[in-house]
Design goal:
Layout: E1 9-14, E2 22-23, H1 31-45, E3 48-53
Antiparallel strand pairs: 1-2, 1-3
């Protein structure tokens, strides 16, 4: 089996600086798409957004 390392991006948002980051559960495979969605969410929801990159593939025992 050939494993290819891919990056997955998630957009997080929070209303206030002390709140925990929340996500909608959607993921993007392209950084540009994730950044665009973060900007659109910040415009419409009046919140702080940030793009997070998910980690590497790890084997499960």
């Amino acid at each position: 089996m050939l494993l290819v390392e891919t990056k997955v991006y998630v957009v997080g948002y929070r209303k206030k600086d002390n709140d925990q980051w929340r996500t909608s559960g959607k993921t993007w495979g392209d950084l540009t798409d994730a950044q665009w969605n973060a900007k659109e969410l910040a415009k419409h929801a009046d919140c702080t957004t940030q793009v997070f990159e998910m980690g590497k593939m790890l084997p499960v025992d």
